[in-house]
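hiii so um. not sure if this is the right channel but i have a protein structure encoded as tokens and i wanna go backwards to a sequence. like what aa goes where. can anyone help
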């Protein structure tokens, strides 16, 4: 008959596991005491990207800080969208996207922003918004005229 395999039980594994668990707990305590205190839930110490995983900005390649939210950043974001939909901006290696309906929608949104902020903007913000509206409207007319027969 075949000999039954012998079974060797390592009784020290529990002791090793408990020792490693204790060492990890000590390391975590050291890291907590060395790290700056974390802000309360909902408070932020600076701009963050809500799409990124926690700590991703610190680990990411070429991590950079986002600019503070501002009226100028909002207007520039809308202008960028208009230029994208007019085919002036493209992703690297991609074909230009021309979507006149979306471009007009963003231009109209800038118009709503102008209407709703009337009398509440600084001179610089007013000039910025006026220039953005003028430039995007003129560019829209130039691009859309290529599609009209």
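sure thing!! here u go:
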């Amino acid at each position: 008959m075949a000999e039954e395999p012998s079974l060797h039980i390592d009784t020290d594994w529990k002791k090793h596991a408990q020792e490693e668990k204790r060492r990890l707990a000590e390391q975590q305590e050291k890291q907590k005491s060395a790290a700056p205190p974390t802000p309360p839930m909902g408070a932020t110490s600076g701009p963050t990207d809500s799409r990124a995983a926690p700590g991703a900005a610190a680990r990411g390649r070429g991590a950079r800080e986002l600019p503070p939210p501002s009226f100028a950043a909002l207007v520039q974001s809308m202008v960028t969208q208009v230029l994208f939909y007019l085919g002036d901006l493209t992703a690297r290696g991609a074909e230009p996207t021309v979507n006149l309906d979306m471009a007009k929608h963003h231009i109209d949104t800038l118009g709503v922003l102008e209407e709703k902020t009337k009398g509440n903007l600084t001179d610089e913000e007013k000039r910025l918004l006026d220039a953005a509206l003028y430039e995007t409207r003129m560019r829209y007319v130039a691009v859309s005229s290529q599609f009209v027969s």
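oh and The longest helix spans residues 123-145.
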